[in-house]
Amino acid sequence: MKRSLNFLLISLAIIVCTIIVCITYLNRYPSNNNGHIEVKGMGQTNFDSDLIVWEGSFKKDNTSLKDAYVGIANDKLIVYEFLKTKGVDDSEIVFGPVSTNEESRTLYSDEGKVIGEEFIGYVLSQQVSIESNNVEKIEKVSRQVTEVLNNGVQFYSYSPRYYFTNLADLKIDLISKATEDARLRAINIVNRSGAELGDLITAEMGILQIIGQNSDESYSWGGAFNTSSKKKTASITMDLRYVVENN
């Protein structure tokens, strides 16, 4: 009985698989003896960033709000003069508004209970941003910020960010390369099978991916967009579907 049941199940599985194969064959090779082929192509290129954004912030603390404002105004002048002596243009420098915060510390009783707060002073901070197409110059300036620190300014420097201003043309070039790559793949496959490549049915573009050159960054489902590397690699994929004309 058990052997008969196993034989029946195997027979049913064979029948189902046969039906699936037939349906697939009919879909791929309809009555006009033409089918289709789907291929994926990739376009890739390396490029250098042509825009750099470097940011930093500085702060001043004092128990007197007036003195704190005087102090941060003096620090701003030091930062500005530093940038000017390094050849940074006024059009590339943007100072943000001054942010004011009050600092206090929690007071505890001998039993460890909170009994209040004690005012410590005011902390004023300001951010400066430099945006320039002279990438090498601003990179060098960002590494010389210790000169500002030596002048008594509490300056915090952030890592530069790198961008490319001609992404639209770059993307068009990548699409062209990916499309040609996919077409050549399709021709190679079809010719080897003794058929001919027919008309293009559909074309679907993938997501633009930009990562650092020679990095271990991974592609993202929504698209990678590296800003930490000056030298980048951009890529895009194209999925093409062609008619295959059988001889």
Compact overview of the structure:
With 247 residues, the protein is of the alpha+beta class.
Structure characterization notes:
The protein starts with a helix and ends with a strand. It is elongated, with a radius of gyration of 32 Å. The N terminus is likely disordered. The strands form two sheets. Strands 2, 3, 4, 5, 6 and 7 form a six-stranded antiparallel beta sheet that branches. The protein has five helices and ten strands, in the order αββαβββααββαβββ. The protein is of the alpha+beta class and 247 residues long.
CATH class of the largest domain: Alpha Beta
| Estimated share of beta-strand residues | 35-45%
Q: Structural class, please? A: alpha+beta
Topology-level CATH name of the largest domain = Alpha-Beta Plaits
- Rg from Cα: 32 Å
The biggest beta sheet reads:
6 strands, antiparallel
Report how far apart the termini are.
51 Å
Coarse morphology: elongated
List how many beta strands DSSP finds: 10
Number of domains: 3
Q: Sketch the topology as an H/E string, one letter per element.
A: HEEHEEEHHEEHEEE
CATH superfamily of the largest domain: Protein of unknown function (DUF541), domain 2
* Number of alpha- plus pi-helical segments: 5
CATH architecture of the largest domain: 2-Layer Sandwich
Low-confidence stretches: 1-33
Features:
Alpha-Beta Plaits; Translation Initiation Factor IF3; 10 strands; six-stranded antiparallel β-sheet; four-stranded antiparallel β-sheet; alpha+beta; 5 helices; 247 residues; 38% strand; single chain
